[in-house]
Fold these 3 entries.
Entry 1:
Amino acid sequence: MQQIPILKIGRFLLVSIQIDLQDQTVVALQEDLADSIVKTGARGVIIDISAVDIVDSYIGRMFSTIAAMSRLMDAETVVVGMRPAVAITLVELGLSLDGVRTALDLEQGMRLLESSLGDR
Amino acid sequence: MTIEPAGEMPISGNDDVVRVRQLVRTAAASAGFSLVDQTKIVTAASELARNTLVHGGGGSVGIDQTVGDRGKHGLRIVFTDRGPGIPDLEQALVEGWSSGNGLGLGLSGTRRLVDEFSLESEPGEGTTVTVVKWIR
Ligand SMILES: Nc1ncnc2c1ncn2[C@@H]1O[C@H](COP(=O)(O)OP(=O)(O)OP(=O)(O)O)[C@@H](O)[C@H]1O
Ligand SMILES: [Mg+2]
């Protein structure tokens, strides 16, 4: 099973998904992220999916789980870089990605997190 | 209706779900599907492969290039397992219904992503799901 690196950038954690995700990798990533948030005291999580060519219900549910989990640890999550074909497919599949914030790219995702943190 | 095989493989582990996605992606791209339709059929295949693995206890998938009415071309994907089967087909297709802790989106959502969908199952015998998507 492959491991997905989690990078710390200032107050945020960046996860850039570059591989075809298998279900166990998804579970491991959720756990790794929870640990990293606690360890680093990160205030935000950015999940970059610009290299991801499909998101099915299992992967989509991971975004909601990570968002809910990080919120409990006082961190915001934003998913960035979703490809148009993926977005169209997700809507038709019926997955609403409840509670997940999105931004078009990494830069806008960072800005979104910065502004939601304000001066805290 | 001419049918040309485009791939076949067993589904017996988590990594096979990823392999099914890759196999379907390759078949859909070479058949000439648009990027959006490739994404839809790969996503549908991912849901069904996971069902075959998780609910059906493993099985196999077969992919064919198919020709329909008025010469339209498409891809047909058949998922088969010899698992417990589905006692109530109508209930299984209800959006949000899951016998486990899933979202119950797999079957209902997949149905929307493809052009033809058929579900055959016999309790104790197994399940076969066939989907077809036509090239636009
Ligand atoms: N191959 C199969 N063999 C036996 N039962 C199946 C099979 N495929 C689906 N089912 C049954 O149909 C139900 C609905 O399937 P569906 O894929 O819609 O939801 P799910 O797999 O439970 O959740 P999700 O796909 O959203 O994670 C399943 O919970 C399961 O009971
Ligand atoms: Mg399912």
Note: The domain at 8-134 of chain B is CATH 3.30.565.10 (Heat Shock Protein 90).
Entry 2:
Amino acid sequence: MYRYDEFDQQFVQARVDQFRDQVQRRMAGELTEEQFRPLRLMNGVYLQLHAYMLRIAIPYGTLNSHQLRTLAAIGRKYDRGFGHFTTRQNLQFNWPALKDIPDILTELAAVEMHAIQTSGNCIRNVTADQFAGAAADEIADPRPYAEILRQWSSLHPEFSFLPRKFKVAISGAAHDRAAIRVHDIGLQIVRDEAGRIGFEVFIGGGLGRTPFTAWHLRDFLPEEDLLAYCEAILRVYNLYGRRDNKYKARIKILMHEAGLETVREQVEEEFERIRDGALKLPHGDIERIAAYFAPPVFETLPAESAAQAAAEAADPAFRAWVRANVHPHKQPGYASVTVSLKPVGGIPGDATSEQMEAVADLADRHAFGEIRVSHVQNLILAHVRRDALKAVYDGLVAADLATANVGLASDIIACPGLDYCSLANARSIPVAQRISERLGAPDRQAEIGPLQIKISGCINACGHHHVGHIGILGVDRKGEEFYQLTLGGSADETASIGDITGRGFSTAEVVDAIETVVDTYIARRQSADETFLEAYRRLGLQPFKEALYGAA
Amino acid sequence: MPSQVITANRLTDGRVVWLTADSVWDEDVNRAAVADDKASVEAALAKSNPAVSELNVVEPYAVEVEVTGGRIVPKSLRERIRAEGPTIAGAYAGERPAAARNADIRPQIA
Ligand code: SF4
């Protein structure tokens, strides 16, 4: 993976020193909260309900075992022994003290990590497919491009005060696991007829108060033009994006108000002006960055593993886990493993320090020391020999991390909600816990099949509820928590925003309502092979509405 | 007027604190000074203002509460969760690992 060069290390260290000084001045009363707030936010420090929260960037969701162990150690030393992995492939600590944060950042800088650009109206951490460099269906590894974008966007002076935050996601496979169509810029790696690598470009996707799936901006952008084109988009947005109303400031609103053709014209014009300038990416530069992401040295192995087959025959629980959590790999004899952070009844995305260390150890032993974070809030060991799957599984069982539920009903995305978040209207985590307890029995999940439930505690939609097959949005109704359901959302290449079912459900009603939706699907599906999403797209909202509210 | 107490987050570690009758910030909502009229709320807020006080807190504000059986219970769910901690049952979220530095964290409700 990418290693900091001298410049990266210097600027991260300089930032830590600067922030240490700012914290000291704040504690000494030399800075007011009003003066300090933007400074702490630039370093990923939020003030939540009970404590400060520190959001640490994990570029494109890739970590090495050393970094994960450092996160574990920080969790133990400065927090309550756990961390929370987010839908932005980041890690949040929920309980750090402000006075300790400069020390935490120093420990992070020592392993080439920081919290810069995890807040504020700038270009945020670039996210990517969690199976990058491993997936059997991949055209090219998206991470070198994500890293090039990271370098370009880090402390980019022109784009440090955009109208609003700006998120870029990139997928290397046609099957979109990075939710690129709900990002400000979504990049899909493609090849043209000549076999050259480039990008299909999407623009203006986003969730929140006004959700949109992205507009299709360009069929093919040659790879050497990546930065010039993104710079052109950002310039157009920086110039025309609204600054009068924060709810109308994202690029999706500009797209909606100005229209695709106008924006495209402006972007293309600016692009033509700068495309042959300093941002042109020489092939050598791309190769230099790509070398950091060179595949590990794989053994030549048969596609099937006799050891895996024997273990599956002997252990049905292992077999079930392989079915749900193991993903095909481009290299014969290898697989990618998803480590579910969604135990039934647990807190989605949370991992204890001990669990992080267990995953780091397994990564060192069986996965070239590399770990990924998915936007679904799980961890991934990208390159595991099929012969070693049983050993990995046994290690995960010992760490309470072997839940076999990836892509199933209990693999729920949930934001921190009102238990932690100062912007929340309602709690998310307890609802996720209750749903997973209701639907998480192995037989029940198997009967239901692929199902993505996503929960947000307010309209900011950090829990991606709009693109959940079943989405749940917490709202406040006269001081009480209510939950609005949306159905039929999707975050993949068939992205769609879910339809609101009708009036919301109380805390007491919401789990029953989810089960009603699930049972309606099971009763109406054409066969067990028709997934929830397929059935919903065929049937529409009506039968679910009737089941939830009675025939009107 | 509904009864009110003054709350804030402590500057050094962000913990939730409540203003007592002695103008001290305390982590226990039950030790907060309850104000029953506008004038005393305003007086308390004035005292708590970080610009004029020595007290190191962030953004104090008044919260409506009910006093029942000697216990002070904030009216809104948000403030109850601030007062009592995350509501998440089980799990370590409410535990205090021995190694944790934050010895001043109160135990959480289940
Ligand atoms: S969706 Fe709302 S409640 Fe949930 S984390 Fe985001 S801002 Fe907080």
Note: The interface with chain B takes residues 26-27, 29, 32-33, 47-52, 76-82, 95, 97-100, 345-347, 350, 352, 418-420, 424, 427, 429-430, 433, 479-481 of chain A (CB under 8 Å).
Entry 3:
Amino acid sequence: MKKHNKYQTEVTGAEAVILSLLDAQVTDVFGYPGGAIMPVYDALYDYMDQLNHYLVRHEQGATHAAQGYSRVSGKPGVVFATSGPGATNLITGIADAQIDSTPLVCITGQVHSHLLGTDAFQETDVVGISMPVTKWNIQVTKAEDIAPAIAKAFYIATSGRPGPVLVDITKDAQFGKTKYVYEKCESIRSYFPCPKVNEEEVSKAAELINNAQRPYILCGHGVLLSGAEKQLLDLAEKANIPVASTLLGLGAFPPTHELYVGYLGMHGNYGPNLLTNECDVLIAIGMRFDDRVTGNVSKYAKQAKVVHFEIDPSEVNKIIHADVAVLGDAKEALELLLPKVKAQKHAQWLQKFTECAKVEFEKVVKNAVNPATEKLRMAEVIHQFHQLSEGNAIVVTDVGQHQMITSRYYKFNHPNHNVTSGGLGTMGFGLPAAVGAKVAQPNKEVVAVLGDGGFQMTIQELGTIMQSDIPVKILVLNNNFLGMVRQWQQLFFDRRYSFTEMKNPNFVAIANCYNIKGKKVTERKDLKEALKEMYESKEAYLLEVVVENEENVFPMITTGASVSEIILE
Amino acid sequence: MENTYTLSIFTEDKIGLLNRVTIIFTRRHINIESITASESEVKGIYRYTIVVTVSQEQVEKLVGQIEKQVEVLKAFYHINNDILSREMALYKVSADALKENELFTRIVNENHAKILSISPEFIVIEKTGDEREIKHLFNDLEKFGMLEFVRSGRVAITKPMKTLNTFLKEVENNSKTTVKHFNK
Ligand SMILES: Cc1ncc(C[n+]2csc(CCOP(=O)(O)OP(=O)(O)O)c2C)c(N)n1
């Protein structure tokens, strides 16, 4: 349709928004209109052939969709919302993106600049409200400032440690006229997104690694963000070092590799947690020692020298003291490290992980994936789904037991295929994030694994799936409980199930009302076929699997316990 | 162990940035004892001086979080020995003090303070010094009836430091690292 003519004298601020997005290579936007952003939506009307807009059903859904989009594509997610309630509805998703280092550019409409501070209709101080949860934000009150603000927003969101940014644009700025000039932002005087790797530190790291008897690599989201998967693999193979992954790092290292020992954290694998307190050199790459990973910090890896590869200087020594800190991009740092690292063998040390894996298999895994219970269990569903999809699907999870089970039993063969809310643990993340992931990767199978609780937090996004025809697969593991909370009540609150039981609707019927096919499975004998039908469906599909009500996720590191006190049952 | 630290923070001129910086303290439940903000010797660059009592570990983390803000050029922290610092205070006492003129004048002089204004009802005294000196004068003047008292935040000059201009040259080179973000 419309082509912007470079020689055209003036455009409106609203059109400058759209043109800036196009110049920033944006192809997809998730949003919801309203009074204060109407000029932008009006300008969008002329560019619908160049910019795909997905109308969500709640602004929180837009942020999570943008997150899912970003996490599987590496591109920033873009969100539109109106002022007041539209803008405040973004906050949960922005906070989630901030703590999980996901680049988002959120554009909100704002009341006329002469009304700022007057408690005008739908005025909220979104710049103030979002300040603690954005990497950067700005309010724009003049049309000519829009393009530079958006250019800066994209630069900040995507550079260094990525994060969400918000640009709040007053209605008069959207209506105002300006000459449109977009200059890509490539540096900001006061901003140092990516420290230059210090070779001396790299040499010190190499020395520690070369002298280690029991080195151990923890890989995090930073490996994926940096695109350092190959370098990580080379390092692990050359020096024969076992690799464990954080929740957000899953997929950064091939799960079938003999050096891959599993998943870290509260419900992670046995050996990877336990042996953290037996290694002599701990090599943390692009991870930030979240408390779900460390358990009790005063009893965490005290015996080990710690080497920390990290892009964000404020993460170094924040939780765990680093004996050597290599600041900068992980890929660049590992490339410099590799030639300095000696080829080694650590057979005995690796053997320990194998032994732990055997114990975990006997005590936990065997019964979880092949249970003797009458009712289906979550782990067997995920295990079968893994086998069916051969670890190749993009799996988006919500938050709770099903999330931990998925992280344990789905083996991600590819990087950036695991989409989950880690740091914030946001229920309601799963469904909209899956929508965004499918938009970004239409040729891949995207499956949202949801709990019955979290599904209902953003269930309205079924409407987005229907309207924009997004063939997302939805696997609801229904235990008729807020399972994770119930587990804690059982273990730490004497089984006092205070408000965790759920009376649920007919999920399949709800899906059907949105024109989405669905099926409900309660029997083991029907599971395999049903999973296959869901997975192979060309359209969106909802499969509800009724699972045991009171299943617990193990192993577990209870609050206050150390990683070596991980319990198996 | 806790200690008093003075933070010097150099920033770009941006609406809301001070708020971003103070949120870092609030979020960690750290009380800001005093804060001042003004333009530095370089046009367009602002300097915040913030005083807190925290542990060494806490102050290091605070500075790390502050420097992470996009528009913060650089943040430093100093113990009292590393800085020359001053606060200013204004004291308003009843004009009755002049009834004991000799004592009053002696107090003002001994405290190296200055009479800023005298009117029939009140006298305003100005004093620059450190916290202790300002408190000392307060105690001395209190007997005349303290009508009003106001104290500025701390301003501080650090003893050893690069000049802001050399630092700016350095950062201009540093900030030009290329963007990298995975794109597959
Ligand atoms: C928005 C939000 N509210 C509350 C919680 C606390 N919470 C964590 S897990 C959980 C239960 C989730 O239940 P469900 O979605 O049914 O999944 P399940 O644990 O049963 O797999 C709750 C309530 C949260 N993480 N997010």
Note: Residues 11-178 of chain A form a domain with the Rossmann fold fold (CATH 3.40.50.970).
